[in-house]
Amino acid sequence: MSIFADENTLVVVQGLTGSQGSFHGLRNRAYGTKVVAGVTPSKGGGSLEGIPIFDTVAEAVEATGANASFVAVPRLGAPGAVLEAAAAGITLVVCITEHIPAKDEALLYNRLRRDFPACRLIGPNCPGVISPGRCNIGITAGEIALPGGPVGIVSRSGTLTYQALHELSQQGVGQTTCVGIGGDRVPGTSFIDVLAAFEEDPETRAVMLIGEIGGSEEERAARFIAAAMTKPVVAYIAGVTAPAGRTMGHAGAIVSGHAGTAQAKIAALEACGARVARDPSEAGKLMVEVVRGLG
Amino acid sequence: MDLYEHQGKRYLARFGVPVGRGSVADTVDAAVAAADRIGYPVVLKAQVKTGGRGKAGGVQVAADHAGAAASAEAILGLVIQGHTVGRLWIEEAAEIAHEYYVSFTLDRAAKLDLAMLSAEGGVDVEEVAETDPEAIARLEINPLDGLTAGGAEALVAAAGIDAAARDGVADVIRRLHRCYVEGDADLVEVNPLAVTATGEVRALDAKVILDDEAAFRHPEWSEFADAEPDDPRERAARAKGLSYVGLDGSVGIIANGAGLAMSTLDVVSQAGGAAANFLDIGGAANAEAMAGALEVINSDGRVRAILVNVFGGIVRCDDVARGVLGALERVQLASPIVVRLDGTRSAEAQALLAPHLSERLMVEPTMLSAARRAVELAGGGR
């Protein structure tokens, strides 16, 4: 098994005729993902390399039974595209769009939660989700992943996610699903959502978590690991030596307390039983040890 | 984008938040002329983007012309937490009856907006939050609903604001919220929000951080754009559109992706060295981008060794290797360069680089070994 996406996932690509949408959408299909439709308003009735194009997501769903969407449209249209997919009954939306203002992301998140609670949004500004050998939605290079499990990966960073996939694959350790949740301030899916899904997934037997400085999601994830995870977790946090970023006034300090620094995140994760690596390669090595120890 | 106090006040004023009359000055003469015009007493305030101005002597009250001259003389050139004061904000002094703290920001955990209001303003409010958290009233606001009149009133009541000032404070809070939302601010913080002896509510300070991602719909923000950065390396990087932060170490860094770039800094530190910069070359690690990045790093006199750390996903390592070789033809590097390329088509990349390897161009298989080599070449780094 895998989480969020598998061989039964039928994907509609919103913005399939754009440069990002066609490049990544076609790569996803070449990987074996069932890309069944594209949506570009005003281009309905056409097709791209055999993939039918529709004007609206509702029409695409009606005609093809699509149950997931890959949103690859520019930032001004992206929140509307996500909501259109949710309104059409899509239950998984991967949005790779960068540079969406924080206010727009917060509105989108709360609109989904209130009106379309069954719809899971991954992103915006994320590499997407790949269940190796089954389904790849987003911008991850599928060939660096290895099917067969037993490791689940969840990450806020793009390149570090690829690095983690590669390190494990090189050692012959496969992955069930790798979820890049994105580094924006209001991600549709958080570490805890993904950790909970991995905990439920029988094929996932260990989880790698890749975080970075800023916010308090890693600290919340640490509390979740202590309270609800039976599977081993290996973590890596980037930014131990990063120059201090801008401070969010006193308000930021009051809201997040001492959370936010790499040191605070590492301490929180270690206190909750996770094994924390000092660099990405060490994270790979620790995970290989953990997996070999599973027998 | 972080605003200076005087810019923040101008931004608040656009949304009808009352602020004091004042003007900026960069010299003692200009400061005294401004103070004379405004009328005494005045407050002279250092314009630096850091806290602790008051404790450092960067905020002074002047009762007359001579006092204004002495204060301006004392504050201009002062160094506050590493920031040299080059500009003053001179404002009419207010007779303060009460000081409050108010802020709007995003609660990232709840994914809701958060308003905080405290009757204990004008002091170290972080300390208040630790020692007496009850003294800070909080209101979570769902952005779909916005701040209602009832919400503002409830917040004011919960914070124990002086009864006579409640309506006025609630009104200013609604305006601050508009500034936060319509103004695309990540943070609007006023400390203190003062009620004067005559019952007028006024923002005596302003900390505003604007969301850079929203700049495209705020052409008016161009007036806040900082002058060119002082650091010549950052100026050069900005001109090339690179994501660059100058640091103090001796290992120049080029990596693809912000996460990997941060991670590279960490690994250099682990190897006993220190990075001269953070540089994320992004998805397009081609010859042009690589040459631009190498030029910026090459212009940095601190750099003793360069570390290129690229992980190929969709970006192919052989393309990056061609980029490095092409860049080396264009740029005469003053420092040796260590390259670590892994991921898609890394074997092809190694083959391309192999004939060119020397004590000026080296390849290492892992991040840690590459960092160790670069630190060694930099003479231990620090």
How would you describe the overall organization of this protein?
The complex is a heterodimer of chains A (295) and B (382). Chain A has helices spanning 19-31, 57-64, 78-87, 102-115, 159-170, 191-200, 217-228, 249-256, 262-271, 280-293; strands spanning 10-14, 34-39, 47-48, 51-54, 68-71, 92-95, 120-122, 128-131, 135-138, 150-155, 174-180, 206-212, 233-238, 275-277. With 295 residues, chain A is α/β, with parallel strands linked by helices. Chain A has 2 domains: 10-122, NAD(P)-binding Rossmann-like Domain (Rossmann fold); 128-293, Rossmann fold, CATH 3.40.50.261. In chain A, strands 3-4-2-1-5-6-7 form a 7-stranded mixed sheet, with helices on both faces. The two termini of chain A are 19 Å apart. Chain B has 382 residues and is of the alpha+beta class. Chain B folds into 3 domains: 21-92, Dna Ligase, domain 1 (2-Layer Sandwich), CATH 3.30.1490; 96-224, D-amino Acid Aminotransferase, Chain A, domain 1, CATH 3.30.470.20; 232-377, 3-Layer(aba) Sandwich (Rossmann fold). Chain B has helices at residues 5-14, 28-38, 65-75, 125-131, 149-158, 166-182, 232-239, 258-270, 287-298, 317-330, 346-353, 367-377; strands at residues 22-25, 42-46, 59-62, 79-80, 83-84, 88-92, 96-107, 112-118, 136-141, 185-196, 201-203, 207-210, 243-246, 251-255, 277-280, 305-312, 337-343, 361-363. In chain B, strands 7, 8, 9, 10, 11 and 12 form a 6-stranded antiparallel sheet that branches. In chain B, strands 1-6-2-3 form a 4-stranded antiparallel sheet, with helices on one face. Chains A and B meet through helix 4, helix 5 and helix 8 of A and strand 7, strand 8, helix 4, strand 10 and helix 8 of B.
